[in-house]
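Quick board copy: two proteins, each given as sequence then C-alpha cells.
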Amino acid sequence: MARQDTLSKKPTKFAPAERAGTDEIKRQASLFTKAKVLGVLPDAVPCVLFVVNEHRQIVFANERIADVLSNGLRPSDTLGRRPGEVLGCGHASEADGGCGTTQFCSVCGMVHAVLTSQTGTADVRDCRVVRAPDNETLELRVWTTPVEVAGEKFTIVAALDIGHEKRREALEYIFLHDIYNVAYGLRWYADFLKKADPNQVTGFTENIDRLCGELIDDIDAQRILIRAENRELLLRPESLRTHALLQDAVEMYARHPVAEDRQLRIDEEADDVEMVGDRTLLRRVLCNMIKNGLEACRAGETVTAGCTAQDDRVEFWVHNPGFIPRDVQMHVFQRFFSTKGAGRGLGTYSIKLLTERYLRGQVTFTTSPEEGTIFRARYPVSSKV
C-alpha cells in the first residue's frame, strides 16, 4: 500500500518527495474503478497503462502491468507506489523519498515525461530501468498524457517494451560497422596477396592474423552478451593467475586500432594472485575495461591496468587520464548509452552484467579532472560458482 504522509518532508535531489496517504490513494483509485472512466480500453491495449496522481503515485493500472512487475509484486500492490518502485528500479530504494528523488532520477525519461505532463503538455521519451538485484535492463518507450477526472488532474502513462528493437539496432550496427570494417581490411590484404611477390608476403601475415582476431573477438563479445542477458551462460571455473589475465587482455588491445597513438601498460606494482574464476568471462571484462579506457584517451595519453590483492578478494583496475562529465556519470553501465555514437555503449554495461550477475563481483568507478578515471572490478579469490 501507499506510504504514509510522514515522507512528505523528506529531502529530494530532483522531483518532489511528497506523497498522498493511503485513504487519499483509495479515493482517487475509486474515481477510475467506479466510474469506468477508461472503459475496456486499458486491458485491450498491448502495453502497460497506468494513471498517476500529482505526487506521481499510481492510482490505476491495467492488467498488462503484471508483465513488468518486480520481485513478487501483484497488480493490486501498485496502488500508491511510484513507477520506478513497481518496475524494480535499483535507484528507487536509494533515498527515503523513493522513485524520482535521487540524482539518477534527473536523467530518467519516465520521470521527465510525467513531470512534463503535469505542466499540461503530453510527452514521449525513452527510459532505461536498471532493475535490482541482477542489473537487468528494461528498455521502455513512455507516453504521458495529462487528463482531468472529477476536477482532479492526473497523468496517463503508457509504457511499451522496446528492448528487442534496441537490441536489433545495436546488433545491426555492429555487423554493418565494426565487423564490416574488419572484413574489408581482410579483403584488401587478400587482394594484395594475389598480386604480391612472395618476398613481400611475410610482412602482412601479422596484420591478417590481427584482423582475424578482432573479427572473432567482436563475434564472441556479442555471443557472450546475448547468452548473459538470456541467463544461458554456463560458468567454467578454473585456477587462474591475475597477472596472466592482465597480460592477455593488454596484448589483445596493444595492437588494436583503438590503441593507435596511445600507450597501454601494466602497472609495475600489480599483484599476481591465484584465484578461481571463469577465464572467458574475466577476460571479456578486462578487455572491455581496457578498450573503454583507450577510447576515453587522447593521442599521446596512457592507459594503465593493474591488480591489487585485498584479503579474500582481488581487484582489477584500469586508469585513464580522462574525466567523465557529471551528466554522463548518471548513465554509466546502462545498456545502449554512449557518447561515442549510435549502437555503442555495450562495454561498461557488459562489465557490470558479467561481473555482478555471474562472477559474484562488484564494479565501481571514480572520476575527477585531477585524477582521471578508474574503473574497478572486485572478485572473490575463491569462487563457489
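And the next:
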Amino acid sequence: MNARTLGEDLRAAARRTPERDAVVCRDRTLSYGELDRLADGFAAGLGELGVGRGDRVAIVLPNGVETAIAIYGALRAGAAFSPLNATVKPEKLAHVLADSGAAAVVCDATRSDVVRSAVSMVGDVSVITDVSQAIREPGRTVAPVSVDLASVIYTSGSTGEPKGVTLTHANMTFAADSIIEYLGMQESDTILCALPLSFDYGLYQLLMSMRVGATLVLETGFAFPGRIVQLLESRQVTGFPAVPTLFQVLLGLRGLADRQFPTLRFLTNTAAVLPAPTIEAIRKTFPNARLFSMYGLTECKRATYLPPEQLDVRPTSVGVPIPGTEAWIEDEEQNVLGPGEVGELMIRGAHVMQGYWNDPALTAQRLRPGRWAWERVLATGDLFRADEEGYLYFVGRRDDLIKSGGEKVVPREIEDVLHAAPGVREAAVVGAVDGLLGQAVHAHVALEPDAEVDEAALRIYCGQRLEDFKVPRRVFVHDELPRTNNGKIDKKLLAGFDPRVEVVGTD
C-alpha cells in the first residue's frame, strides 16, 4: 500500500504511461496524459469560481469521461466531491446542496433544468453545465494531505433524508488498496464498469483503476446487455464488477454460453448474495474468471470478501474481512458472539468513515469507541452470523432499507410521495424477494372512498418525482392495509403478499 492521495494517483499514472488509455466511454477515449491535463484545467476553472481546499463539489452526471474529469478536477482543487445519481430530482438535490454547503454543482445540458431548479431553492451555489467549457489553462493545483476530506457520499437512511458519509483520502485509498490486493489488480488490467459512478461500487472502479494505472471502460447502464458482451470481447476486458441484476440479465442472453472470454480474469459481486444456480451459471459461462462475492456499505466501502476457492464450500457466505481490517459480531449489550449466533456486524479499519456530515447524533450511533481512546469502529446496522471457521453470513437489516438492483431505497421516501398522490389514503412500501433485483420495490396503497386510481397512474406519478430505481415495480391497491396487534401497518405480511393466492386487508 502507498500513501498517495487520490489526485496524486492520476498524476503518477500519467507520468508512468501518459499514452495508455485511462477512461473510455462510447466514442471518447482519454489517455492518462490527457486526463491529467484536463483535471488540472478543470481545477483551474473551479478556482475561478472560488472553489478551494475543503469546499464541496456536487456532481450530477451519467457515466462518461466528463465525470472522471470533474471528480479528479475537484480533488486537484483541494475540494471534496459528492457524486449523485443522474436521475436525481430537484428536491433531493436541493437537500444535498444545502446540507453539504456545496460551493459548486457540475452537470450537463440534459440535467441543467433540474440543477438550476434545485439551486433556486438553496441560494449561492455555482453551476457548471458543461465540463469542457469550464476547463482553463492549468495553474497551480492544491495538494491535499491524506487526512483531508476527499468525498461526501450521500446515501439513504432510515429517516428518508439522505445522509452524507464523510471520507478522507486516507479512508478511500486504504479501501482501494485493500480491494486491489485481494483482486490482484494490475496496470495491464482493463475494467468494464456499467455501474453508475454515483454508486460507490461503481465509483471505486474509477479510483482503483487510476491507482494502479489500468484502463477503465465505462458503459452508461444495463439497458443494452448485448453491448456489454461486445465490450467484454472487443476491449479484451480482464475485470468486470456487477450486481446480481446485471449478471442475471447477461445470463439470459441467447448464445452467451457459446462466446469466449479468454482475457477475463476476475468478476465481482455485491449488493445481494448470488443464488447458487446463478453462481454455477456464471462460472460455466466465464470459466477463466475468478468470482468474488463481497459485502460492503458506503460507511467503509468494503467490509468482507469471499475467496473464490471457497465458493464450492460456502456459496452463501460473504467471506472474511478485507486485508488490513477486522470484523466481529456483537449482541445488543456489545458482547462478542460466537459461531452461529446472530448479531450486529462491527468493522474496524482505516477505511471506516469519519462520520455523517452535519449529524453528530447519528454519527455517535454508528461509530462506537474502539480499542484505543482515539479510535472508532463501525456498527453496520446489519445482522450477521459466523461459522466455526470465521466466515461471515448476512442475515438481514435492522431497518427496512430495500436493496434493489444494487441501489439503496428508503421506503419512507416513496411513501411520502404516494401519500401526496390524489386519492391515496395510506401507503406502505416494502421489498419483495425478486430473483433478478434481489429485492423489488412494491407499494401497497389504500384509497380514499370513491377514488379511482390504478397502478399505472400511481407508477407514473412516482416516476415524475423519484429517481428511476425508486419507482415501485408494482403498486397493489387494497381496501385496507393489514395491521399488527399494536396498530402498525404489517409490512412483514405485505412483503410476502402474493395477489394470486392472498387477499390482504379486505376482512
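Board note added afterward: DSSP finds 14 helices and 26 strands in the chain.
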